[in-house]
């Protein structure tokens, strides 16, 4: 059974739970003041052009400069807020996250991607390692952090403990990641159906993560997860999602010479961006 991780649980114990269940919950990772600072930084990024924040617009993930009037679009998100917003970086490189991931990796983590959501992304059940290709792929981990209360009907995060042991799905020619245009919508649906059947055959069922502001969950990149249906009156569901790999593994954008890696001396963990220029990095803090 997954249990809430008390502040006292060691990084090693959290890492063991993450390996065993594919997820570990970190209740009360941030206190209310820290959550307020995060929310204010994100609020500013939506209105202050000088911060140069980039938003990704549904349904095609078009990237545009963030603007206040875009913020209410369903499924909209800010890209890599950890690069230029210090409270976001502090939260996503929180010692409890870094400690747990370092214990899993046996080396420091690299925070290589983050997103700030205003509402549920309405994600179908999937595994992140089909979209974020790493070599070796097993090093992919994700963090989801609540910035406001998230309860039933709000399109909350749902995940299937134990599903990280399901073998990788081959899209074609042995590729374990989804690659449009080689893979089309039908190929994607086959992948979604494969995950659903495998979970069913293994008797694995989904849990929903109902969170207070400042609660977080870390999951394995191979864990099946998605968004529960939005059926309630409350549409707002502010959250941060971040992706990490071991610092000795490169995400594809760095392998391809795109993006930037922050100087090693800056933090106890590395971080990088696929979107922003080097000068937009916020000072260490
Ligand atoms: O926040 C959610 O509901 C789902 C997030 C998700 O699926 C992801 O970031 O991969």
Automatic annotation (TrEMBL):
Keywords tagged on the record: Dioxygenase, Oxidoreductase
The organism's place on the tree of life at top rank: Bacteria
InterPro entries: Phytyl_CoA_dOase-like
Pfam families listed in its UniProt record: PhyH
GO terms assigned for molecular function: dioxygenase activity
SUPFAM superfamilies tied to this protein: Clavaminate synthase-like
Protein name: Phytanoyl-CoA dioxygenase family protein
Organism: Pseudomarimonas salicorniae
